[in-house]
Amino acid sequence: MKRKKSFVLDDKDYKAVQLFTELGMPKNLAKTLLYISQVDECRSADVEQGADLRQPEVSVAMQELRRRGWAKKRDIKKKGKGRPVHLYKLTADLPQILKSFEKDKMKEVENIRGDLDQLHQLITSMEK
């Protein structure tokens, strides 16, 4: 039986995963995103193997990608009985997704800045 050659994450991918993770993205989500960004369409099993994740981790990551609007799912019926095969594909390319992620992170920074400003004002008013 022939096995399809599958894609696996490389050092650059793992560096990107590390940076996404340091910026607050869950590691499994980052690994799944990096994997799916480099293939046209894939099955969960492909991500499991290529990103070195377990099935539940991929499932949660795919749900999150879909929730954020970054990926979509399509089902293919198998012949006979059984569950359909789910195929996943990004709805935007990685640079667009990075822009969206960056926008969210910048909002967080603005919120933190606002909270710190309020805290400075409160502390200053208490000392008077």
Would you give an account of this structure?
With 128 residues, the chain is mainly alpha-helical. The chain has two domains: 1-91, Winged helix-like DNA-binding domain superfamily/Winged helix DNA-binding domain (Arc Repressor Mutant, subunit A), CATH 1.10.10; 92-128. It contains five helices and three strands. The longest helix has 34 residues, at 94-127. The termini are far apart. The model has no long low-confidence stretch (mean pLDDT 91).
Keywords:
Arc Repressor Mutant, subunit A, 2 domains, 3 strands, elongated, mainly alpha, 5 helices, three-stranded antiparallel β-sheet, 128 residues
Summarize the structure.
With 128 residues, the protein is mainly α. Helix content is 60%, strand content 11%. The protein has 2 domains: 1-91, Winged helix-like DNA-binding domain superfamily/Winged helix DNA-binding domain (Arc Repressor Mutant, subunit A, Orthogonal Bundle), CATH 1.10.10.10; 92-128.
